[in-house]
Amino acid sequence: MAVSHKGAISFGLVHIPVSLYTAATDNSISFNQLHKKCKSRIKYKKICPVCDVEVSADDIIKGYQYQKDSYVVMNDDDFEKIKTEKDKSINIIHFANRSEIQPVYYDKSYYVTPDAGGDKAYELLRLTMEAENKIAIAKTVLGTKQTLLAIMPAKDSLVIEPMFYYDEIKALPKTISKPALNESEISMAKMLINNMTKAFEPELYHDEYQEKLKQAIEQKINGDEIVPAQTAQRRGVFDLMEALKLSLEEQTQDASVENKDEKPAPKTKKRSKTIDFDKKNKEISAR
């Protein structure tokens, strides 16, 4: 796994050298854009309109347009000159309760591992935050932006979540009313939620639509027709209380079915050609 960022977590006089790694990957099937007429792959070229030539990555620099058709060039040295030592480290500003931060502020996740000499301070920070149920709010400069971060203790490591700033969060698009609810509705909803509550086991979940998409692609490669999905008919329920009662009944029935021994899956017709989608995704990511 490639290192995404190297730096150091700082709080007070404590300095912990660390490396950051992306914590998740997107396994979605990737599609190419093709010309409808000849089915050839579409290519995009970076063209200089003045010189009328295709430009390679080595010949592209950064520029800021301060007025129409006028640019000031900024290079890597310029970005580094304005960085302070504080900007180069992951500087903890303060600690906070996990419950205080709304999920909309979080962006993506990074695993944080200690580098040489930082093991003890790293574990001290992780263990103490876990015991106190706290997260750390920090800042660092990534690329050309000072990024707000949440540092969270996990079971065996620290995890960093880049956060959006307050002025980057959009307002709720509409006012949500809060209609009056009666005790029967609340009680029935609680029963349904409690009946549907179980331990979260992430390994049990997978993208079922992507599995069907892979099958559809293989069917078309082999010259077969895509088998249409069967859609279950939903009951027409217009009363909230009735919907809760029926949902509770269906959930109870589903639970009893799950407890029975599962029948072996029916044998499927062997396909003449299969695609290693995971391998193709890795090849695309490496490009």
Compact description:
Helix content is 28%, strand content 24%. The protein is of the alpha+beta class.
General description of the model:
The chain is built from seven helices and eleven strands. The strands form three sheets. The chain has a seven-stranded mixed barrel with strand order 1-2-8-11-10-9-7. Helix content is 28%, strand content 24%. A hairpin with a 2-residue loop joins strand 1 (5-11) and strand 2. The longest helix has 20 residues, at 240-259. The two termini are 15 Å apart.
Order of strands side by side in the largest beta sheet?
1-2-8-11-10-9-7
What string, H for helix and E for strand, traces the elements in order?
EEEEEEHHEEHEEEHHHH
Give a quick account of the main beta sheet: strands, pairing sense, barrel closure.
7 strands, mixed, barrel
**How much β-strand is present in the residues?**
15-25%
N-end to C-end Cα span = 15 Å
Mean pLDDT: 87
Q: Unreliable segments (pLDDT under 50, ≥5 consecutive)?
A: none
Report the CATH architecture of the domain at 5-24 and 82-168: Beta Barrel
Structural class: alpha+beta
Please give the count of helices.
7
Assign the CATH class of the domain at 5-24 and 82-168: Mainly Beta
Helix content: 25-40%
CATH fold type of the domain at 5-24 and 82-168: Ku70, Chain: A, Domain 2
